[in-house]
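user: can you give me the structure for this one chain? tokens are fine.
assistant: on it. calling the predictor now.
[tool input]
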Amino acid sequence: MSILSGKGMYLWIISRVEKGDPEKIAQVAQDAGLTHVLIKVADRHFAYNKDPQTGKDNVPGVVDALRARGISPWGWQYIYGTNPEAEAAMAIQRVKQFNLDGFVVNAEVEFKQKGMDVPARQYMQALRAGLPNTPIAFSSYRYPTLHRPLPFEVFLEYSDINMPQVYWVQSSNPAQQLQRSVREYQALSVYRPIVPTGAAYPDGSWSPTAGQITEFLQACKDNGISGANFWEWYYARRDAGLWAAVSAFPWPATAVAEPEPTQPDPEPDPVKEETEPHVSPEVLKDWQEMQKALRKQGRPYAV
């Protein structure tokens, strides 16, 4: 079981990046020096990145193309906690189906209600039982103190990596925000190695600068962090300066200490309080339009 190192990028909707061409996606990732790509494979208890009209699954082609270039394919899932066993079952199915190198659990606003520690534990226990040898990462808000009662410790207890969303939206101090995020997670009763996610997407009239991308990555290195990710491929590619900054930063994969298996495997600036999910208005508009179209076809399509 290995911990991620180097640069990674989240991939939300395969069909809208590089014309959905797996070879092009893999080539762009290789040219940018990415060591891993995090592909959305499930949402709630539904498979994700399947063509709503043809039913074609767009995930395996990308996974194969990335792997052929030595780039690690990971999956991720946004969860809601309404049916934790079913959500975990879908995650397990997708990870095994593509033999993914790792899996990211994305839990946000739905888990900020009281009592959500129960479905969180049910989901994580089932996920870990089904994927005992697969590295599992937890992705959520950058500052735990602002988002209670979200059960950060429950998710981290069953995870190998912590991937806080250090999005310095409407600000210009990524290094400072990274340091605060790290401090807050270090203060929790459960700590896991941090591989943070930075902002490579716009929010209204605000957009990160190339210099901020570089500052964020350098701050990760300066803090002894093994790797970092960005949200998200489509928006980063729309801004040539952002993608160029990610590409230009020298951070190849390096050997990283492996964590102990969670259990035996029987098988081979002042910051304003965040009150909303990380999705920007532009992203939300895209999502809403797609949601409408797919709802007519009886198919779910969520962030």
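assistant: here you go. The chain has one domain: 6-296. The two ends are 28 Å apart (CA to CA).
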